[in-house]
Amino acid sequence: MLEKLTDEERELLPSDEDVAFYAEHGWYLSKKLFTDAEVDELVASSERYYDGERDRTLPVRPPRLAYWEPANGPVQRHNDYVHYESDALARLLRKPLIGAVAARLAEASEIRIFQSTLILKPPKPDEPTNIVPWHFDRHYWASCTSERMLTAFIPFHDCGEEMGTITMVDGSHLWKEIGNDDTTVRHFADRDNEDLEVKLTVNAEYNNAVVKKVPMIIPKGHMSFHHCRTYHGSAGNRSDRPRRAVSLHLQDGANQFRHYELSDGSSVSYNHDVLVRKTSDGRPDYADPTYCPVIWSEAV
Questions:
Q1: Is 4 inside a domain boundary?
Q2: In the sheet where 213-215 sits, what is the strand order?
Q3: Predicted confidence band at 178 (pLDDT cuts at 50, 70, 90)?
Q4: Beta partners for 214?
Q5: Is residue 7 part of a domain?
Q6: What pTM was estimated for this model as a whole?
């Protein structure tokens, strides 16, 4: 059952000016949405998760699942579906305040989780997996109908440039896109970094836009939000400790599965498609509460 926001939590919601800023720039830095104790619990819960603690595991392994295991070594770690596998992490990631902030920014009446990815970027400046090239999330969500989806980047500590914080290309969500082909629906991990850099430059030139890169300087307990079409990436971790975070992908209540056909006649799929229940007409249900729970609703 969803909880109503307290008066103190309502004070933490984006103002009208903040919503207008997000619409213009494609990103937003939140107020302090987690207490220090809640952030510390995220760290502790993630360590237990890395040690193998699970409340449940996925019934099948989706084809593009990111799932770091100790055998993978000291690379950048990505683990999807932590909101499903870990109740301790889910309790905090499903905090209604996060959904209410997202709803204000997306101008939506309901927010559901779409995906959650636990991330650890090791303190290894030269580790190639630490580099996240320029991309935007909508490319990988071609099977979704919504253009209002967004992502909350939630670091578990103060997070700045030295740690390789997430960096936005200001206003890029408003660009008209060219050079879109079958390759764009592939995850950045499966694509060439230089190709992604070229696509960013080409699209900026087409839009007569300046590529303004804005690193998110995020204090502990705060988080950034970005639009699903905002170009973003991150550099290596030059600090002396791991960069810990969750990338929490969020969908508005109107989002549904759609068939998106590639040039060879095949259809794009998302990992959910082998997990979620089916709608009455046989499509994957992106409102399945098991994997895509509602975290905020105007009706509450």
A1: no
A2: 132-135, 232-234, 166-169, 213-215
A3: confident
A4: 168
A5: no
A6: 0.94
